[in-house]
Structures are given as structure tokens and as C-alpha cells.
Design goal:
Oligomer: single chain
Number of helices: 7
Helix content: 25-40%
Radius of gyration: 29 Å
Structural class: alpha/beta
Strand content: 5-15%
């Protein structure tokens, strides 16, 4: 009687998986230890098209019937704030023909500073970041917060703010404008920049969320 082919070949040899499993057990902890976890914050925004008109000192007769449509537009001269269909007048110390909130140092050329920062970033990213920070420091963020708080007192139920920037404006300035506009700080207004930057976010008293909201629903707008 002829033998079965498997018997002639010595039967079925099972693969020894023990060395492979040992290797996997060793590699998994090493891979987990080498993983870098990043905490990413996400702000829900939409992107409608928006146009900011020329400055006007006219105010609507009935603000309850007129939507706020609060807009903060960033350009190389500062912040242009529009509400209820009109652009707010410049604050004290800013030129009448300029933006609502001008630069801290009006003699600085933001366009040239941005070009230099971008060119430097291609060669040295750290040095480029320093130059971009200098661009951000040229803007009057404290006065922007103070002005937004005044508007919030007139429209306490409004939470939406449209934020836009000129094409050459760095994206980090738009993000900072959103951050300044989102929550209330310890005080309603500040006159010292160091106190402003060190201030903590105010706790919510209404029970809606952890922090007191300013204009907590930013909309990324596209200025024409």
C-alpha cells in the first residue's frame, strides 16, 4: 500500500511563532514611548465673503432693528472695526483718515516687516518667528480688547465676530484677533499692556461654559 505523501515528506511542520511574538511584545512599548502627542485646539469657523465699506460716523436710529454684524478687519495700518453697517471712528491718537485702531508705532512699515520675516523664515525658521512676533507686537491688541468690551455691553447677546485680513497679513495675526475677541478677561478694560497680557480669562457666572464669553463665535471672513 503506497504511503501518504504527507507521511513521506515528514508530516505538517507548524511554523514557530514564538520568536515573532516575542519581538512584537518588545517593539510595542518602544513604539509607544517614541510617539509624540500633540494637543491641537480647534476653533469652529465658517468662511463667507465679506466686504468692509468706507468709514462713516453715521449711526442707525434703532440699533435693535439693525444687526450688529461686528467685523474686525486687519491691514498694515491696524484694525478697522465695523458694526451695524458702519465703520467705527478712529480712537484717540489715531489719524481721522486711518483705521479704527492704528498701530502702536505708526511709523513702522508692516508690509516690509512681513516680507523680511517670510524671507528670513526660509533660511532660519526660529529667526523668522522672532520677526513675525515683532510684527504682532506692532498692533494694539489691548485697545482692540477694550473696544470690543464696550461693544459687548451694548449688545450682550451677540456672540459672532467676523475676522478678516488683507492678503499679505500673516495668518497668526488673524488667529490672535480671534483669541482676543473670544473671552472676557478679569477687567473690562486695561491701560497697562503688561497687566493685559498677564490677565486670566474671567470665569463664567451664567453657567454657560467654563469661561465668560465675549464674542466666542468667530467667523473667518474674506475681505474684498
Amino acid at each position: 500500500m503506497p504511503r501518504d505523501r504527507r507521511e513521506m515528506e515528514g508530516g505538517d511542520d507548524e511554523i514557530d511563532l514564538v520568536p515573532f511574538m516575542n519581538m512584537v511584545v518588545i517593539l510595542i512599548p518602544l513604539l509607544l514611548l517614541s510617539v509624540v502627542f500633540l494637543k491641537v485646539g480647534v476653533v469652529n469657523i465658517t468662511a463667507p465673503k465679506l466686504s468692509v465699506g468706507p468709514p462713516s460716523k453715521e449711526k442707525p436710529d434703532d440699533k435693535e432693528e439693525e444687526p450688529l454684524n461686528l467685523t474686525v478687519a486687519i491691514n498694515d495700518e491696524g484694525f478697522r472695526i465695523a458694526a451695524t453697517g458702519t465703520v467705527l471712528s478712529p480712537v484717540e491718537g489715531c489719524p481721522e483718515s486711518g483705521p479704527t485702531i492704528c498701530l502702536r508705532n505708526k511709523s513702522k512699515n508692516i508690509g516690509e516687516m512681513v516680507k523680511r520675516a517670510r524671507k528670513t523664515s526660509k533660511k532660519d525658521e526660529d529667526e523668522g518667528d522672532k520677526l513675525f512676533r515683532k510684527v504682532s507686537e506692532s498692533y494694539d491688541w489691548m485697545t482692540l480688547y477694550n473696544r470690543l468690551m464696550k461693544i459687548k455691553k451694548e449688545y450682550p447677546d451677540e456672540t459672532v465676530v467676523n475676522v478678516s485680513g488683507d492678503p499679505d497679513i500673516p495668518y497668526n495675526l488673524i488667529i490672535r484677533a480671534m483669541d482676543v475677541a473670544r473671552y472676557k478677561l478679569e477687567k473690562d478694560s486695561y491701560n497697562n499692556r503688561e497687566d493685559f497680557w498677564q490677565a486670566s480669562i474671567r470665569k463664567s457666572e451664567s453657567g454657560e461654559g467654563k469661561f465668560a464669553r465675549l464674542f466666542s463665535d468667530p467667523v473667518l471672513a474674506v475681505a474684498k
